[in-house]
Amino acid sequence: MLYEYERLPSARSIRILTLCPAEQHTDAIECTIEAIELEEASYDALSYSWGMNEDGNSSQDYELFIHGNRQWITRNLSEGLRRIRVCDKPIRIWIDAVCINQQDNVERSVQVAMMVDIYARAEKVLVWLGNGTEEKEDLLMLDLLERIKKRTEQIKPWKEPRLRHQNCFVLPLLGEESLSCSGCVEYQQSESGGGDLHGFDAHVDWLKECFRSKPSLRRAASDRTDMAIRFFSRRYWKRRWILQELSLSNTHHWYWGQHVLDMSKFPKDWIEDLLQAIWLVGHGLRETSKDLTRTVAWPYFTVSLDDVTGDDSFRTRTRGLSKLCNSQNHDIMKDKTWNWLLSYFHSSECSEPKDMYYALASMAIPRIIIDYSLTVAQVFQQFAETMLDNGEWIWVFVCAAETPNNQESLRMPSWVPDPRLVDFHYGGDEPPMGIQISQRDSLVCDVRCLGVLRTQEEFNGDLDTYRRTHDFHAVWDASFWQVCSSREPSDEISEVIRPSPLQLRIQSNKALSGDILCSCLEKLTNFDVWIILRRKPETTQTYELVGVQESGFAFLESLPKEQHEQSFSECPKIKMRIA
Known about the structure:
- The structure is a single chain.
- Helix 4 (about 135-155) packs across helix 8 (about 215-230), helix 6 (about 180-190) packs antiparallel against helix 7 (about 200-215) and helix 10 (about 270-290) runs antiparallel to helix 12.
- Strand 4 and strand 5 form a beta hairpin.
- The strands form three sheets. Strands 5-4-2-1-6-3-7-8-9 form a nine-stranded mixed beta sheet, sandwiched between helices. A five-stranded mixed β-barrel has the order 13-17-18-19-20. A two-stranded parallel ribbon has the order 10-11.
- It is about 35% helix and about 20% strand.
- By secondary structure, it is an alpha/beta fold.
């Protein structure tokens, strides 16, 4: 018989699962559950990869018994519960997948909004990183973490003043703490003596010398570096929900395989320092071996070092995680801006599209309302409206313009970004002249109309194939005057057709001839982001957002700044409706 949830007695009630002890790992997972007021509850909280385990299996075909009634859970959760339970006492624990009735959207919305309090009040967070590697590698990773902990205890790097070379994790990666890191020594000597030796160069030069003189050291460094990259590439670290689960807790216990480690003893930013060491060791390895290519085609290296040497999703996400994984700054993520969170964690995954925002809602400002009864498109649009209301218009427009033809399939307005398809990396603090959200899902924007875009061929007859299709000039022609005077297309246009006084030239693979270029700002600035609008075929007064253009890259440098500013002020102010 399947377990049936009873309604929670109050808005501040939560369910706590009691995990019964078991003698054998293979024993059935037996539990009881009770509803209790959050403020009165005593419990741990589980953080794990809910959607799927390391092999990609997300099916819910493993059994858990609540008061003798069956509940279906994923394999990863089943393995995690078997790992953390003990043989001599019950464990009181909160687990989102079981303690929330996932079939009740009203309860789900309320409980998810409470997760900031649920995790903050937990005595500790049990992090289940999963199985998936051999016991030998698990032991080596445990050894590496213990070496890092020992080194930080010796140096106390969290005491100010703190520089990265004070907490060099190169030696733990080499497995040779008895060595003296000459890279650190030379860098410090250069710095104290007024020299200009870079810390990167000092370390890489020393590593190259070590690896050439000691092949065994090179192999050990390669093994440990590869292992560390794989460890932080586990599916758990890519999961979006873990961000609030880690940031709101005082104490983390990491479980993986048969091992557990109390991470509350580790210092601030130790993961970022480890990333720095991986980056240094990787460069030392590449420059030491002629056979080491940029894709790291070397028997000892199975993970691309581009994952850590470039500013890609792995490096960005893991740097963000560094700020979560210690108790000394567990509240650093509270009240972060959406721009900050989404910039660091745009690649973090969740199984439900709505959770792209909801999984971060407890940490980010401005606050958003969680409502699982809404459609995906409604959640995305509601979020964009909240951002616009809080002045993040550049961020919204840039991300919406980068959303690759997905608004139509979701039936969203053109100004609504799809967070699954774009990187959030833009910010601006210049307030727009005016943006109002109408009841017809459109924006009414006060803009300066800078011109109509015409191709290079239309403008001066240039037949160059590339420039003919990608280069555009802003002109004031019949279409421009129709837009600016709100005249019907059939009206006679008497104004003289001429280039825009701004003398702009832009390159775009999204714009078409006839698109309108506009600025939302009152004054000219090199940090403006202009919007490219296209008239919707079925209407004469409504446009859709098709692209953006950074203003600083559009001006002809031969003209003085004062002339640009004067020409900008001559551009007509109008209202545009963006659907």
